[in-house]
Amino acid sequence: MVLINDNYLRLPESYLFSDIKKKVTAFKASHPEAKIISLGIGDVTRPIAPVIIEALHSAVDEMGHPETFRGYGPEQGYSFLQEKIVENDFKARGVELDTDEVFISDGAKSDIGNIGDILSVKNKIAVTDPVYPVYVDTNVMGGRAGIMEKDGQHWSDIIYIPCTSENNFVPDLPAQRPDVIYLCYPNNPTGTTLLKEELEKWVDYALENDSLILFDAAYEAFIHDENIPHSIYEIPHAKRVAIEFRSFSKTAGFTGLRCGYTVVPKSLRISDESGKRVEVNKLWNRRQTTKFNGTSYIVQRAAEAIYSPEGKKQIQESIEYYMRNARLLKNCLQNIGLQLYGGDNAPYIWVKTPNRLSSWKFFDRLLNECHIVGTPGIGFGPSGEGYFRLTAFGRYEDTVEAISRIQNWKL
What we know:
The protein is an alpha/beta fold. Helix content is 36%, strand content 14%. The protein has twelve helices and 15 strands. The strands form four sheets. The chain has a seven-stranded mixed sheet with strand order 2-8-7-6-5-3-4, with helices on both faces. Helix 5 links the parallel strand 3 and strand 4. The chain starts with 15 loop residues before the first helix and ends with a helix. The model has no long low-confidence stretch (mean pLDDT 94).
């Protein structure tokens, strides 16, 4: 008899964004005349920058000639891209890394899901709440989470660290020690950030408690405030306790091209069953060489172009485009009396639903009355109830139209 992985049966039947898609599809079928504006799923709308397109074309041409054709590349990534990453994303901020500590991948989501391959199922997991659903779901799939509790939101073996207006969405250090801690800053979904001294507390906690921090920095390029760290490695000794994930998806519009990278410092060591300390970099390298054939040469050449002087300029123009959307949305929502967070150093705005509406009720009203799609906060965890996420990744014209509709909305 063939058996499946029963952990998949423990997951909710559908993913948050699948539920949203079903609702929107049903609405479109019954209201074919409605123009729906999506401010929900965080996909980008700006085209890829011209300098990146040029690099793509050049790399494609190379593949057509025997002397420049590339077959299998290094599973860890080509050195030309690793070197650019180390020089621009880390050394420029005072962080020293070796190129073999940088692993190029097809995006942060894949690596965040796959990192569990090298971690024991016995580890106790901690997540901030609300949280990006992938952190929780991948641990359920890997057998690192217990049964769902009666409220239909909590997993019994996961430590939830509430982030609410009461603590200004800055998570408190957990009273119960976790082995693995997921942190995402700038945060998805709340759009909030941690100051350097706030992040230092987490690094110190991990050092004191022999915990591992999985730090998702996918939105670091949207940081404008100089007091907010772009990398956890800006904190002293963080390389002993943290793995950092980065993505070009939102930074450079690579949601369709797929490219990101993960930093696994060689000074990071965790224990095996006997208590012996093991270098995580070697384990992740072994995992990648076994299960991954590397990101395509063409895409890596495109990513390299991001770091050229013209590439930096063009990428910054896109980032400012989206942050202008964020400022407009934020001003509009504040003007109609809604309480909100984020939108300053991240492309997400976290809205407190009015009149004690549940997050799904607010979703339904916004869709039916304004023809605008957002994301219910409850989909990000128990503490997300009563909140709603809007993204700034839409087209400017659509954002302006959405603002016009919201301004005339009778809440």
